[in-house]
Design brief:
globular, TIM Barrel, 23% helix, 8 helices, alpha/beta, 3-stranded antiparallel β-sheet
Length: 328
Amino acid sequence: MNKEALYYEKLEDKKVRCSLCPHYCIIKDGKIGICMGKENKGGILYSKNYALTTSVAVDPIEKKPLYHFYPGTDILSISPNSCNLSCKFCQNWQISQMEAPTQYLSPERAVELAKKYNSIGISYTYTEPLTWYEYILDTAGMAKREGLKNVLVTNGFINEEPLLKILPLIDAMNIDVKSMDGSFYRKICSAQLAPVLKTVELSQKSCHVEITNLIITTLNDSDELFHKLTDWLASVNPNIPLHFSRYFPNYKLSLPPTPLDTLKRARDIAANKINYVYVGNVREIEWNNTYCHNCKKLIISREGYSVAEKNYHEGKCNFCGTALPIIG
Ligand code: SF4
């Protein structure tokens, strides 16, 4: 189903310039943008994959990962067949980097399903949801009116104007900061770093935000980069949870999986300035537990994506009474 895109301008010869993300694709009549989600038909830009989802699943919120947003709950998870980055290590490349089967899911039906499956809301995830902008705007508005939460799992590569328009509908985001090195973004992801950092800085003023940094052997695993990420995030807000994630070979990258020592090194550096640091894609359970930043006692223990124990009440630590940066 097509719906006219919200952010673009018309150019000569039925060309258009999309302004949803910093790629600013100039798209000829009959062609699509870099993300595959926008198509020029006769000089009008359409959201090509409006209401078409590659996936419909109910996931634990921890899988996003969001560890400080309604821990232990489930969320309906849907995704477009589009992405504006082309990361060589993409873990979901079959649905983000090439055409994949989709099914129609109207905004009304998405809301119905979220309620039917006792989900706290809808997560727009797996590929790059912001390339599904028009659909999310409609669906998230409807979901919010029904008392559901809206969650974006995003690469954060979006322009400021559309971001600010959608933020009032969004309750939580996990934003990838793939590296603090601009050349990594250019060479490995065909994107830029600065707009992503801007997205984090703006979004955390409006909704709950957590950050993921996938650590890839030799490409973004230096102490210098871990210090840069830590210092920047601490300057934005040291209570934003930071998830380091273990890389495994996928898509166009065959480098070996990240050594556990590297993940521990990153965690140790970040923990000096960030209050909540986690390590995902590993079996080390204590790296996924939550400890009160004041008294250091265990407040959430996790087993895989499940919450085994909670030691907080109404946002306060049961042991020392400190207010915690946890919602729900
Ligand atoms: S959203 Fe898609 S079409 Fe628009 S500028 Fe970005 S990559 Fe290009």
